[in-house]
Amino acid sequence: MSDRIFSQAGALPLPDTAFVPGVTRRPESGVFIDVADAAPETTDPAGWADNQAWLYGFALYGNGFFWEAHEVWEPVWMGLRPNSAERMLVQGMIQLANCCLKLGMGRPRAAARLAHHAADCLWNAGHGRTARVMGVDVAQLAEASVAYAVAIDAEAGSGALERLVARRPVLEWKL
Q: Sorted alphabetically, which SUPFAM superfamilies does this protein's record hold (predicted)?
């Protein structure tokens, strides 16, 4: 990761606590809200390495801020061309974040449905492609998402939801 990109998104502070609907109070302010609000109206897929909302979402997701990751990725998704590989990728990643959020809320069936939907989106994003999309190896992430959906289906009734969250697919980008 280049220093320029790290300073753009990786150095932004994380929220104090993760928002979990029905458990914690919804935040009304914070860096992640400012980043989401400042996201460009149109997302340039070729300029992903300069998109602060896109990159900050990785830090949020990786640190367990799933609702917040969704919030910063949503304007990125909205700014992409409909039916594009990039839009499918971002939709899949949003669904993975939502899946983890549902696990944290104790809703494994909803989480399993979202994990399967994420995998479908990611497969569609990577269909016929071997290269990365917006810095993400979509084929690898699609495979990890399918495995995660299967794990949720198999273990959701065991009550080990926190363990499932910890085993979530790793989201990473590379130049």
A: TTHA0068-like
Q: Which residue has the tokens 């949503």?
A: 74
How many C-beta atoms lie closer than 10 Å to residue 13's C-beta? 9
Start-end of H helices in the chain: 3-5, 31-38, 52-62, 66-78, 85-104, 108-126, 138-155, 161-166
Mean pLDDT of 102-119: 93
Dist. CA 146–CA 87, nearest whole Å = 19
97 has pLDDT over 60: yes
**Mind listing the pLDDT tens digit for each residue in 67-87?**
999 999 999 999 999 999 999
Tell me the chain's radius of gyration from C-alpha atoms: 15
Give the domains, in start order, of the chain with CATH numbers: 3-166 (1.10.3450)
pTM listed for this prediction: 0.91
